[in-house]
Amino acid sequence: MHCHQFQSQPFTRRAMLQRCANGFGAVALAALSHDRAYGSLYKGLATAPRDTHHRARAKNVIFLYMDGGVSQVDSFDPKPLLDKEHGQPFKPKMEPTQFDNIGTTYKSHWAFRNYGQSGVPVSDLFPYIGSCADDLCVIRSMVANFSEHNQANFFLHTGFGLQGRPSMGAWVGYGLGSECHNLPGFVVLNGGLIPSGGIDNFGSGFLPASYQGTMFRAGETPLANVKPLETSPQIQNRKLALLRRLDQGVLDRMGHVDQLESAIANYEMAYRMQAAVPNLVDLKGESAATKKLYGCDAKYDKTRLFAVQCLLARRMVEKGVRFIELTCPRIGGNDRWDAHSNLKRNHGTNALAVDQPIAGLLTDLKARGLLEQTLVVFAGEFGRTPFAQGSDGRDHNPFGFSIWMAGGGVNGGHIHGATDEYGYRTIDGRVDMHDFHATLLHLLGLDHKRVTYHFDGRDMRLTDVHGHVVKEILS
């Protein structure tokens, strides 16, 4: 018999959606799990390896960031006319300077020598790097849009002159993913100097938070909390399991939430790093010859510090870390490479700190067969004026300056572009920051026009709507 006393009531629309929400969510999750942008996050990975757009020449980037701006006419762009006109009023038309404290034409304190079979000229600031001249692709025709540190740093790192955009390291991780399961895809080895503009230079901006840079210190304790506080692994695992259940409950109710999913991925990455990081920074397995090559036994303590950074960068490349940025050591009496006065001391001590370690890095990568797949970049946010600020300094100069690249598919022993006879303005082969970023992505196998992320109503990219690949420097 059927009892007709109780009759089922029809679902209201609200009740139907409430009861079916988990079903719809499961369908959506099944679809998203095949999308690399989301699927890898659900698997607990910040980034899964992705296919390139074309054949990649490089798999990793080591960015040697020379904070404050290295003087091009004292490093990689010799200008004999400065010697001839030293102390005379500067003849070319001048642009406004940062501090409007303009002195006379100012020669270099360092002689230049031609190195290697290529004969690339390098100043006596960098004798060790000069020994690697046949691997260097020197770009003498860089220009920047900004002459103030904050904006110029953001422009160099993110392709935009204001904070809040993703760093190029984040874009590389977003475009390629990581081949390293136990370490972040984007690591900043902090030698003591955070760039003007702060850690937003290493941020992920509107990209998922898992792509932001993770900052390591050089030394035995690269991360403050790398060692677990719990008395046993079982206690830590129970805490992590509880966190997973709580986080999953939020995801079940709310669906895709970048901040939460990135936090989950970061919890699990941090757990895996507890085993990976101590092994990474333990240099006992490195030979005495290797440590000596980098300058780990140098008399100057800042050389030893940067040597460890460079050695760690090589070890990270071996582990599959995609993008590694090194910042400079903090040197008392110097404001980075920002030599507004006492140029000789400023550039002299900074070069002493980084010259041997960088050459050691290039030599070691090459000997191990890693330089071909690793793009090494040496760059600051702008250059410096060929005339003095006051009597013995140089002001900011974004109108023509030098950077170099090595390995990773660039022409070694090659010079691209030129500045005028004073080293003031670019006159040939102009390369702006968007071109630099487009070329870096190209060498990694990515078309800069296709590495996009939809945000704020349009597709965003590192190069915005600008940039072209500098094909002349490609091998």
Descriptive notes:
With 475 residues, the protein is α/β, with parallel strands linked by helices. It has helices spanning 13-32, 36-42, 80-84, 127-130, 149-158, 168-176, 233-254, 258-281, 288-294, 301-319, 343-367, 433-443; strands at 60-65, 102-105, 112-115, 120-123, 136-142, 186-190, 214-217, 323-326, 374-379, 383-384, 387-389, 396-397, 401-406, 414-416, 418-419, 426-428, 453-455, 458-460. The strands form 6 sheets. An 8-stranded mixed sheet has the order 7-6-8-1-9-13-5-14, sandwiched between helices. It has a two-stranded antiparallel ribbon with strand order 2-11. Helix 10 (301-319) runs parallel beside helix 11. It starts with 12 loop residues before the first helix and ends in a 15-residue tail after the last strand. Mean pLDDT is 87; it is low at 1-8 and 24-46.
